[in-house]
Each structure stands twice: as structure tokens, then as C-alpha cells.
Design a protein that fits this description.
Oligomer: single chain
Number of strands: 18
Helix content: 40-55%
Structural class: alpha/beta
Strand content: 5-15%
Distance between the termini: 68 Å
Length: 635
């Protein structure tokens, strides 16, 4: 038979390909699988985390009234191991060495530990494919484990994960183990096998690879992905393991789970806490970024929440008539860093056909882009505005009437919390102006809750940062505002205006600017919501809250230190719905060598600065570190 262990594969064979695994075991009738971290994986990094979770839950359930369990459980296992002279011991043996709780308490704690073990385990998708192949090809499947849980519990765990084995060997029951290799001779004798009829697969280099071979049994080392996480909180540890254990090899699903999921989770936990602190009666999530926020929040909390179609454009248009003079609108209309007359009029309420018609009355280009300050100081800008002012005011008054009726449907209680992605709080400014000016809303108070906000006001609350205070979180967002908004943005288009039909007010929705990427956005959101659903299912989010640093960590790595594959995922996405620009503008290194002023301008206007630099100035330079140091030096 062809040797499976070539010289360069002397110590192990990397099992990153199911077909490779199958090829290695195909000539064997009897296949022995290690169970934990091979057939099954835990959503924890350290085994002791189970004890920490059990202790916290037992305290919450009233089983115990102290915080001693974690340490007592570790000590008891150490004592049980020593008493057994490093031989095998059971869960009951461990609990017999806990003396600070009654027998009744210990019984409930053992039941809770088994329940937590079951909850924190899931199938290893890669090895499950191998298992299914073994079943299909009539292999004799053996499960082997060095574990203090008894075989009935382990069998339940296996079957709950759709794994049914022909024979189960548990060290605590047979007194033999993989660690010393004695269990392999026991299996050969029990099944009356020759040594060359059996192959064992497992993740522990000594117990699952060296010891079987030392006893004449072929073995296959399943090399796991390393967990380089260090000291972690419980929820952080479980979250990272869920991400690691549930990759789908779909880059958009995986990146949604990895970078948007933790950010949404931390934001929703913070949001729920602020709701209690500020005595908010109801949350209104604003379109479009608020849709994924609402979905995540509704998964975690059983509350009535609302989703309202609204946009900067609809609020700008609805309030224009309250401050219609040219020198006033600059303070109210949020405009991008580059703007044309076409974008300007669109933001003030004209549709594209109307703009096309009036542009014929002038001899200058309505599509030409100008820098923000230059645009406002041009005579042409003021001329076009003043010529069309009455039309814009009339449209604004009509939209104001529609919008106030629409808003009234959602403001059924007094203390309203609006939820959006944030940054400058301009939408809340406009809403506050409407609420203040209309008697329909005399009893309404509004507070805003955002991922980040630059307003120093108690009515504007940010998860990552509030006010204009410089901090690392703000630096990360400033460097990648286009990326984070792309992640949060829903696949529906922006709200253009409102109209009335049979006495009801409805929003007019534009087509989505990234329509050809709909399936990718859906996958990103599916990945994020999967993570949140899984953590709720595991019951972990109730034990600890993750702070903003943990929530932002994975996103920060992508924003400041993106890989080429991560940049490729997003570089073609459209960011600005008015001038149809891509998230990353690509002109190339050669172009910028001869147009350095344009380089500076494009960099300043870039919505993902590190992505821009890597695409145009070289993938291998450490642009993230350069950017961070320049920001620190320049304050």
C-alpha cells in the first residue's frame, strides 16, 4: 500500500481539504475519530471557560450565593486527577472533591455543567463531511475520547449533532486513555482487529498522533486553526470561536460575521442599556442603516421597535421653507466634499427630469464637480438657487405637510429614541426643528443613539464616541466612513420624498445604488445576524457585555490593515448615491506620480483611506501604521 506519510509530511498532514483527508483514510475499514475539537468543536478557547459560565449561571439561577465555583471546580479536578494517580476519573469524582456546597447544590451544578457543555458544542463542518463519507462507504466508525463525562452524555452530544457511531470508547469508563496509548490496544483487542486495519484521526499531537503510532496504529494529525486570542472575556472568547467554527467559505458571509457582527452586537447591547438609563419609551430605527440595526436588536430583545423611511434629503427638503435664504441653507444642507449644481438641486428637492429641463436655461455645466467651499462662493450657484427658489419653497411646504403626518404614525409615546449610524447628527437636528415648530409634537422629546456622533450634547449619544473629542475609535471611522456605511446600508434605495394616497402617507424609494451587489450585501448581513442569533442561542450575551474596543476590533483590522482579498470584496461598491463614485477611486501609481495635487485631493476625499492608498500606492507598504502615526503627530 502507498505510504501516506511522505518525508515532508513526517509529523502531520494538513487537513484543510476534505478530499485529502478521505484519500488518506480510504483504504481502512475501521476509522477512529477523536471527539472534542475533531468531530465536534467547542465555542470556547479554554476548557475552564465552561466552569466560569456554570458559576455565573448558577449564581443567576439561585443555585449558589457566592462566586467561588470557578476556583473550586478547577481545584476539585486537580485533586481528582492526583487521587486517580493520573489515571482516569469521572465528573462525579471531581464533584466529590468540592466541599463548599451541599449534595443538592452539587447535583444541580453537575446537571448545569453538562447542559453548558452540550450548548457550547457544535459540529466541525470539515470533519462532518469526512464522517458522512465514511457512513456512505460503510466504514466502521469509532469515537474515542479522553473525557470525564460518561458515555451516555457523550453519545447524546454526538446524536444531537447528527453523528451516530458504531462504537464509543470513553476513557473515564474503561480506565484506558489516548494520553498513554493504552486505549488503542484496548480497541484492537475489543474489536479483534489487526493493527493495520485501524486508523485514528485527532487534533492532539501526542495523544492522537504519536501514541497510536507508538502502539502500531496508523494515525492522522488533524491540525486545527490556532486560537491566538490571549486573555479574553467570556463573551469575547465565545464570539471569536463561533466566528472561527462557522466559516462558510463565502467571503461576504464570513466578513459580515467577522467584522459587522461584533460591532452590531456591542452597539445593540449598549443601546438596550441606554434605553433603561434614559427611560426611552420606544426606539425608531431610521432608514437605511437602521434596518440591520433593528433586525439585530429584535433578535436580542423582545421589544416593540419601529423602522421609519427617512433620509437627509427628505428632511432637508421638508425644512427648507423654514430657512429659505441662500446664506441660511449652507448651514442646514449636508453636502459631500465635491458637489455639482445637479447634486445641489437634487438635495433641495428637484427630481432628475426637473433638473434636466431647467439646466437648458443656463450655459454652464450642471454636472461639473466643484470643491465644497468653491461651490458655495460661485455666482452661478446663487443664481440658479434664486431663480428656482419659489418652486423649491412650494415643494418644501408640501413635503413638510406629508412628512409631519408620516412622522406622527411613529411617535406614539413621549420619550423617543431615534437610532442611526450617526456622525454629525444632522438628521436629528432637522427632526428636532420639525418637532419644535409643529404643535402635533408638543409632548414629544427626541434623543439620538448612534454608532458614533460628533455632537457634544446630552441628546446625542454615540457608542464608539460622542462629541468632537479625538480618540482611536473616531480615527478608525474617519479613515473608513465609506466602508462602515457600506456594511450597514440596506439593499433598498434612499427615501426620495413622500406622497399621499387615500389619506395615507407613503415614502417614495429610489433604486439602490449598489443594486448589482444586492446578493453580497444580503450575505454580509446574514453573516452578522447569524453571529448574533448564535450568541443569543448560547445565552452568553446575558452574562457579560462586550465593550466598544472588543466590538470594533475586527472591523479596525480590516479598515486600517486590509488584505488584498478584503479590498477586492469592496473596491467596486458605489458609495455616494449622488455622484455615483466608487468606494475606492483607482487612478494608479503612475498617474499620481505626475498629478500629486490630485493625489492629495483624492486622498482627502477618499471614503476608505487605507484602501485607497493600497490600491494606488502599493499593497505591501504598512499604510495603516503610517496613517495612525500621522494622525497622532497632527493631533
Amino acid at each position: 500500500m502507498r505510504s501516506l506519510w511522505k518525508k515532508e509530511e513526517r509529523y502531520y498532514c494538513k487537513m484543510d481539504n476534505v478530499n485529502k483527508i478521505i484519500n488518506c483514510i480510504s483504504n481502512y475499514k475501521y476509522i477512529s475519530f477523536d471527539i472534542f475539537d475533531t468531530l465536534l468543536v467547542r465555542n470556547i478557547v479554554k476548557n475552564e471557560t465552561i466552569f466560569d459560565i456554570v458559576g455565573k449561571r448558577a449564581f443567576d439561577y439561585g443555585i449558589i450565593k457566592d462566586n467561588l465555583f470557578f476556583n473550586e471546580r478547577i481545584i476539585a479536578q486537580d485533586i481528582a486527577s492526583k487521587k486517580a494517580n493520573n489515571a482516569e476519573f469521572s465528573l462525579q469524582d471531581i464533584y466529590n472533591n468540592i466541599n463548599c456546597y451541599s449534595e443538592g447544590q452539587k447535583e444541580k451544578l453537575m446537571e448545569l455543567e453538562v447542559l453548558v457543555e452540550k450548548t457550547m458544542i457544535q459540529i466541525n463542518k470539515e470533519l462532518f463531511e469526512v464522517y458522512l463519507w465514511c457512513k456512505k462507504n460503510n466504514k466502521y466508525i469509532i469515537a474515542t475520547s479522553d473525557m470525564y463525562l460518561d458515555s451516555s452524555v457523550i453519545n447524546e452530544i454526538l446524536q444531537e449533532n447528527n453523528i451516530y457511531v458504531d462504537k464509543l470508547y470513553v476513557s473515564s469508563e474503561i480506565g484506558k486513555n489516548k494520553r498513554t496509548g493504552t486505549i488503542f490496544n484496548y480497541i484492537l483487542k475489543d474489536l479483534k482487529l489487526c493493527k493495520n486495519e485501524l486508523i485514528h484521526i485527532g487534533d492532539n499531537f501526542k495523544s492522537d498522533y504519536i501514541m497510536p503510532q507508538f502502539n502500531g496504529v496508523r494515525s492522522f494529525y488533524y491540525k486545527k486553526e490556532k486560537s491566538l486570542y490571549g486573555d479574553l472575556q467570556i463573551q469575547e472568547e465565545v464570539m471569536y470561536r463561533v466566528i472561527q467554527n462557522n466559516k462558510k467559505n463565502d467571503p461576504y458571509f464570513d466578513i459580515g460575521m467577522k467584522i459587522l457582527g461584533p460591532l452590531l452586537l456591542g452597539f445593540c447591547e449598549w443601546l438596550n442599556n441606554k434605553k433603561k438609563e434614559d427611560k426611552i419609551d420606544q426606539f425608531i430605527f431610521l432608514s437605511r442603516d437602521g434596518k440591520i440595526m433593528k433586525k439585530a436588536y429584535d433578535i436580542l430583545y423582545n421589544e416593540d421597535t419601529y423602522y421609519m423611511h427617512i433620509s437627509r434629503r427628505t428632511l432637508n427638503v421638508s425644512t427648507l421653507w423654514l430657512h429659505p435664504e441662500y446664506n441660511e441653507i449652507k448651514n442646514y444642507i449636508v453636502i459631500s466634499k465635491e458637489i455639482s449644481l445637479e447634486i445641489f438641486l437634487f438635495r433641495l428637492g428637484m427630481n432628475k427630469n426637473e433638473i434636466e429641463i431647467i439646466s437648458q436655461n443656463y450655459d454652464f455645466d450642471f454636472k461639473k464637480l466643484y470643491d465644497y467651499d468653491l461651490f458655495w462662493n460661485m455666482e452661478n450657484t446663487k443664481l440658479v438657487y434664486e431663480d428656482n427658489k419659489q418652486f423649491l419653497i412650494s415643494n418644501s411646504q408640501k413635503q413638510y405637510s406629508y412628512f409631519t403626518k408620516y412622522l406622527k404614525k411613529y411617535t406614539k409615546k413621549s420619550n423617543i429614541g431615534i437610532v442611526d449610524i450617526g456622525w454629525r447628527g444632522s438628521m436629528q437636528n432637522r427632526l428636532a426643528q420639525i418637532v419644535k415648530s409643529d404643535t402635533l409634537f408638543k409632548d414629544i422629546s427626541i434623543k439620538g443613539y448612534y454608532v458614533g456622533v460628533e455632537k457634544n450634547d446630552i441628546n446625542y449619544n454615540g457608542f464608539l464616541y460622542s462629541s468632537g473629542v479625538k480618540c482611536e475609535e473616531k480615527m478608525v471611522i474617519d479613515a473608513s466612513v465609506g466602508l462602515i456605511e457600506t456594511l450597514f446600508l440596506d439593499i433598498e434605495g434612499t427615501t426620495l420624498s413622500y406622497y399621499e394616497k387615500k389619506g395615507e402617507i407613503y415614502p417614495e424609494i429610489d433604486t439602490y445604488e449598489n443594486e448589482k451587489y444586492n446578493d453580497k450585501i444580503i450575505k454580509i448581513h446574514d453573516g452578522a445576524l447569524f453571529l448574533i442569533s448564535k450568541l443569543k442561542e448560547l445565552g452568553i450575551f446575558k452574562l457579560e457585555k462586550i465593550n466598544k474596543k472588543i466590538a470594533l476590533n475586527n472591523y479596525k483590522k480590516t479598515a486600517l490593515f486590509p488584505t488584498k482579498s478584503e479590498i477586492n470584496l469592496f473596491e467596486e461598491f458605489i458609495f455616494n448615491d449622488s455622484n455615483n463614485s466608487k468606494l475606492i477611486k483607482k487612478r494608479g501609481f503612475k498617474y499620481y506620480c505626475f498629478h500629486y495635487k490630485r493625489l492629495i485631493r483624492d486622498f482627502k476625499n477618499s471614503m476608505w483611506k487605507i484602501g485607497f492608498l493600497k490600491c494606488n500606492m502599493g499593497m505591501h507598504l504598512p499604510w495603516g501604521y503610517i496613517y495612525k502615526n500621522l494622525k497622532k503627530r497632527n493631533g
